[in-house]
Amino acid sequence: MRNFEDDPTLADLLSHEQLARLNQTLSGLCSAPVTLTAERPEVEATPVEFNLETIGWLSGGGSARERDAAVAMVGFLMLFIGKYRLAANLHHDATEAGYAELQRQNEALKDSEARYRALSGQLQQKVDEQVSVIRQTQQELYESARLRSVGQLAAGVAHEINNPIGFIGSNLRVAADYVNELGALVPETPENRELVADFHALLTESLDGTRRIADIVKDLKTFSSIDQADYTRCRVNELLLSAIHLVQTEYQHDLDIIERLAELPDIHGHPSRLSQTFFNLLDNAAQALRDAEPDKGKGRILVRTLARDNAVEIVIQDNGCGIPEAHRANVFDAFFTSRPVGSGTGLGLTVARDTVRAHQGSLELDSREGTGTRVRLVLPVNTPRPTKDS
Description:
Radius of gyration: 26 Å
Structural class: alpha+beta
Largest sheet: 5 strands, mixed
CATH architecture of one domain: 2-Layer Sandwich
Mean pLDDT: 79
Number of helices: 9
CATH topology of one domain: Heat Shock Protein 90
Shape: elongated
Number of strands: 10
CATH class of one domain: Alpha Beta
Low-confidence stretches: none
């Protein structure tokens, strides 16, 4: 991925398919087809700028005014594409640095274990206890750093996006009022009516876009629990929905997730750790769908909740590739992963299990290779605050 500081080209910002869809959408909004290209065409065209650099040319349209409006809309979209690139680069750099540090610590741990095994039998029990403490501490440090990283990223995104989205939305609503006033002043002709209607459509679509961005920021805040204490009352369905939205965003909204969420009581717990657990389990399910055989058809993920006696039950089930029998005994081991090197840390299920245990709940995993995986969590409604050793 190129750095945000680079001068991106149109191809860096939009894939060939995305550019084709954008041209189709813009043509539908204008009275004549428009075309956005990286090279300047021979016909009359309007430049499209990003970071004060011309990245493309827009031609066609019924008039220069239509082209200018289309160019303004493209520029508006590029602004948020750029912000997304910045956030993605920051997240990528933080994740890569964290993974490299984990690898270094893991190698140091292996060396330490090898030295301890060379000691006499009288020290073996002490060595095993020490290794267990090291592993637990390492896992807690990783989890804490990851949650803190996500929280800081979400806080930065919320701060950077909420303010401009607020005045953009306000300006768009005022612009809609101005269009109504201008519509009453211009001569009543079919062309003018069509132009006013197109302008209204552009403003409406832009307002919808601002609302979607605001919803994404809200999901990020819920996921990282920026506005909540470490241990408080949690609304499980809201945490699940935020995790679902974020996973859908990560997989380009290409997941078929069935939600069957019953009305649940609030539980006493750690919202950010629960959010991370739900996200990890959903991400595992999404990865299992991608690794499934192509002839299985469309993959699905079922997310179901149920209120029980003084507890809530959460089920996350997929019909993906499943877990091979040889791997099932190790799926909860720290750093165990069947994914290629660099694509998984092997801590997702370990963190999920320990988080559920800290809330005095239970986690059951049932998986069959080629059929799918079902994870069932049961969390008590009233859980004493976990101790430092939980």
